[in-house]
Amino acid sequence: MKRNLDAMRRLFTDGTVWALPESNCASILEPAYPHEVLTEVERVASEATDTLLLYYAGHGLLVGKTQELHLALRDVKWPDECLSYANLRARLQPGQRGWARRTVVILDCCYSGEALNGEMGAEPAGSQTELEALVASKTEIEGVCVLTASAATRKALAPVGEEYSAFTAELIHVLRHGVHGGAEYLNMTAIYDAVAGRLAQRTGMPVPQFGARGHGAEIVLAPNRAHRTPGVPDLSAGASLADAAFGAAVPDRGLPPVLATYKGVEIRDRTALLQFLRHLKHEEGELDA
Hints:
Blueprint: H1 2-13, H2 34-47, E1 51-57, E2 60-63, E3 68-71, E4 83-84, H3 85-90, E5 102-108, H4 115-119, H5 130-137, E6 143-148, H6 166-177, E7 185-187, H7 188-200, E8 209-214, E9 220-223, H8 241-245, E10 260-262, E11 265-267, H9 270-284
Parallel strand pairs: 1-5, 5-6
Antiparallel strand pairs: 2-3, 3-4, 6-8, 7-9, 10-11
């Protein structure tokens, strides 16, 4: 899976998708024990403030009576000592120093669809209203998206003789070449549709799975290199992403427009805005509509 990992890293650092600094991309090749991964993921998640992307390629297995998803490690002997996805997911939660507003998880492994069963579940009920939590944190959790190579009961495939696994090969193709007829920027829904469509044209390929919470389905991951508009360089012909960026306004990750701000908090949802106005009226008396 080293080729998968190397290719994905290049896509995000060489200007093909974005030109991220190398320091913003952490790679762990063939980790031996769970703590190696959990410690690094917790560090990265605690420092992320915009978008956190986790990509895993390797072997997946279902463990125990509850058939929980675990990710295989190099030196672990027993299946239940492998990396629990539930433990990994817990490290993606808000850290002490940072809070990623958007989280994308891409899993290329067998039974990876099992991740959706826990990730997309309902949020636990709490004493704070959504607005109170929003104002208290001074940020808005805008979305979580999980894209997996297969269903919870299916194996992912790595065809013999091919450079990448089947799922990652199509994901790389979509990110590198874009989607003809698509929008200027590719959100997670468009990426999933394109990858699933390409895999459907290949015999015997598992169907990838997709789940989102909040605005997760609208998270923009890449410019559409197949998109054509007057005056915009043809990226597929070798122009850099930086060339296309000049003079072209980059959208706010495909999210709904900001309706109001309060102490640096962006409110994009109409219901949340009305809730906020009622809160102000209650706290400050009469409010001029």
